[in-house]
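Lab notebook, bench 4. The sequencing result for the construct came back, and we need a structural model before the next group meeting so we can plan mutations. Quick request posted to the team channel:

Model the 3D structure of this chain.
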Amino acid sequence: MSSTARTAFSPLRARASSKPPLARRAPLGLGQSLDAAKASRSDAFLTLTRASADVIDVSDASSDDTRVRASASANPIVVLSGFGNCSSDYEDALGNDEASLAKSLRSRGFSVHVAEVERKDWFVGILRGIFTKGFWMNACTTRESYGWYLERVDACVKEALRANPEATSVDIVAHSAGGWLARAFIGGALAMNASEVECSGDFLKRDERVRRLICLGTPHAQDAKSDPTRGASKWVNDTWPGAYFEPDVQYVCVTGRAVVGNASAEPKTIGKYAAGSYAVVAGGDGDGVEGDAVVPNCAALALEGAEMIVIDACWHSMSTVGTFDEPSKFHWYGSDAVVDRWLKVLRA
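Done. Here's the predicted structure in C-alpha cell form:
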C-alpha cells in the first residue's frame, strides 16, 4: 500500500482529503471530504445528489468510451457471494436487472459463473461451527464454519474452466465476506476440510487456477472483540497477510464511500445502522466513520500491497441495508452503472 493510501484510510474516523494522484497502489475515485455533508446531513443520511460536492454521481458512469469489454483472452469470472447472500442475488438482484452483477459482466462479454450458495447455507455452517472448540475460543480457521463455502468455490472454478477449455485460470470477483474467504481458497485452505490435515497453513499450497481476486466491500480486518467470524478472518490474515501471492495473483480491493456513521442518530436511520455495522467490523462506536453502509473503508482497504479503488456513492449490497429481500434504490458494486469503475483492472 502506498503512503498516500495509508494517510487517507488508516484512521477510522472521517477526515478531509484531496484526491490522490493515480498510482497502482493509491485509492482511485476518491472525492472531496465529507465535512460539508456531515454538517448538513439529516438523520445521518448522506445526500446522494448531483448537487453534492462530496459524492460522485454514478448514474451515468458507463458510456461507450468507458465501458469495459472482455478481450478474446479474458479469463472466465467466478462470482462469490457475501455472508447471508445467495447465488440468485447476483443473477437477478431481487428482480432489478440493472443491479445484477452477473448480467452486467455478461453484457460486457465475460464468461460468468456464480458459485452455488443458498441463504440457509451460511447459518447451517455457523451452527456446525458452534460445536467446535475453535468457535468458543475465537480461534477458528475456515474449516469449522466455512469449509462448505470453499467446496462451492472449488466446484465453480472447475465449472468455469470446463466451460472455457482454452482458459487455464479464472478471475474471482468476491463480494463482502467472499473476499477474505477467497483469499483462504487461493492459499489452499480447502485441503483442511480433510479431518486428517493439521490446522496450519504451513503445509498448504496455492491454488494456481486463480489469476486475480477482486474484492467488493470485503472486511479484510475485523475487530478482535466483536469478530463475528470467531477468529477465522484473523487466521486468514495471519496465514496469508496482505497481497500474499503477488505477483502470481493480482489483488484488488474495492470500497464504496457512501455513508458516514452517526452513533447519536435516531434508531432505524441509515447513519445509526452504518455506525453499528462499522463498529462490529472495526471496533469503536462507528461515529464519523466512512464506508459503504456496512463495511468501513478502513477495513475494506486493509490489505497491504493490493490495488485499491474507492467509489463514491456506491453502497454495499443489491438489497436495502439490514435486509436480504428488499431491493436497494442505490447503486452498489454490481450495478451496471458502477462495474466499469473497478472492472477496468482486467484490462491491465
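Strands lie at 77-80, 112-114, 170-175, 210-216, 250-257, 259-260, 290-291, 307-312.
Will bring this to the meeting.
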